[in-house]
């Protein structure tokens, strides 16, 4: 099944039934798409062949949309000590555990960069703050990150606005802290430079990386992620495209385009229209323009909204609009629209 990941934040606090945010991928067959539920074991780019556990395929065009994989085992102590915010199992475990968490220090920890959905850890802290407020529990929340500011690629103004939202809830923001190890026995996080932070309840964003099937692939760039043309999403190999979190697109200021679903959404449209044009013998014209947006859920029935042009030079131009009930409603409606439109 496909899981609508933005809604895991609501699942985490019991505000959404996890079964309502899933759709069987087999429903794609209604759109005339042949769907194979299998594991890709190898991609032979030279001979243009994809190997799966079920059968093998040759291709004329290939679109790699494998996403960013999470690797909790790459961070010492993560699996033993932290609840993983970035998968359904983790969200459900958090949901069960917070029902019994009456008081203490909760830490939301971003273990490393890059990570997908730059707003999600901050939304999680804000939502949990509201959850414990409603329950009248004495829980202190702290968010620790290697970033200088939240959502840093969006610019200093957006980052400072997110910090202000955290501070308005009494959430401590600890920046530029790179974790070295987590000790479950001592309930302590050790950071580069020697600092330690204790916790009673730890929610973590695990290290991210490319899917293992792409290790050693000729489409990888210096960053270790898939290198693509920023406008066409084509790799250095003809008719081989990649989109979404598996890619690394370098912006004018040198920072990478954030790994966010909204970009994959728009990139997919560009890639589909480009392949259609090539099949019809026409030169592709549609290009990805670097525009994107993001809802920032506050947990109190309101959401903020950031949008802008990440391809703007010399720096991305992104504005954040104040939180409102209308924007929270917009996020909820987007969830319903997306699941209905594509399935």
Description of the molecule:
The protein has seven helices and 22 strands. The chain is α/β, with parallel strands linked by helices. The chain has two domains: 38-67 and 210-288, 3-Layer(bba) Sandwich (FAD/NAD(P)-binding domain); 72-209, FAD/NAD(P)-binding domain, CATH 3.50.50.60. Strands 8-15-9-10-11 form a five-stranded parallel β-sheet. Strands 3-4-5 form a three-stranded antiparallel β-sheet, with no helix packed on it. It has a three-stranded antiparallel β-sheet with strand order 12-13-14. The chain is globular and about 65 Å long. It starts with a strand and ends with a helix. The mean pLDDT is 97.
On the 0 to 100 scale, the average pLDDT is: 97
CATH homologous superfamily (4th level) name of the largest domain = FAD/NAD(P)-binding domain
Q: Which descriptor suits the 3D outline?
A: globular
Order of helices and strands: EHEEEEEEHEHEHEHEEEEEEEEEHEEEH
* Rg of Cα set: 21 Å
Q: Fraction of residues in helices?
A: 25-40%
Structural class: alpha/beta
Question: Any key phrases for this structure?
Answer:
single chain; alpha/beta; FAD/NAD(P)-binding domain; five-stranded parallel sheet; three-stranded antiparallel sheet
SSE layout:
Blueprint lengths: L1 E2 L4 H5 L9 E2 L16 E5 L4 E4 L3 E3 L3 E3 L4 E2 L7 H4 L1 E2 L3 H11 L4 E8 L9 H16 L2 E7 L11 H13 L3 E3 L4 E5 L4 E4 L4 E3 L2 E5 L2 E2 L16 E2 L12 E3 L4 E2 L12 H19 L11 E7 L5 E7 L7 E8 H18 L1
Parallel strand pairs: 6-18, 8-15, 9-10, 9-15, 10-11, 17-19
Antiparallel strand pairs: 1-2, 3-4, 4-5, 7-16, 12-13, 13-14, 20-21, 21-22
